[in-house]
Predict the structure of Lectin-like protein BA14k.
Amino acid sequence: MNKFIKAAVLSVAAAAVVLPTFGTAQAGDHDDAWAAGAVGLVTGTLIGGAIASQPRYYSEPVYSQRVYVDPEPEYYEPRPVYQPRPVYQARPVYRRVAVESYGLEPWTPAWYRYCSQRYRSFDPDSGTFVGYDGRSHFCTAG
């Protein structure tokens, strides 16, 4: 409001200085009309500027002391860790098969010795070896 009063007083003072210079006899002059228009424009600009420069007051709650409150952290469930499940495979059941032997009796120490020396994939528990076809074959010594 203080600026408005200052602007209004200055406008009135400017008008008081300029207006008495125009006499009634000179009112019909065309150049004086331009001067009066300029004075009016300046006066209007000053008053409009004073009105527009008024501070705007907003109602904001006043606190004696501002306190920062940390927001609650958001909790994210951790991603599950991939753990492969164990794969259970049924073990093949080996039957003891009567094999026609060519010299050595199956399950004897000589037979074990012969098969383990002849076949690198020989399994002494089942008496088989893995052939080139990928299948298990019973060892026939002879």
Observations:
- The first helix runs from residue 2 to 18.
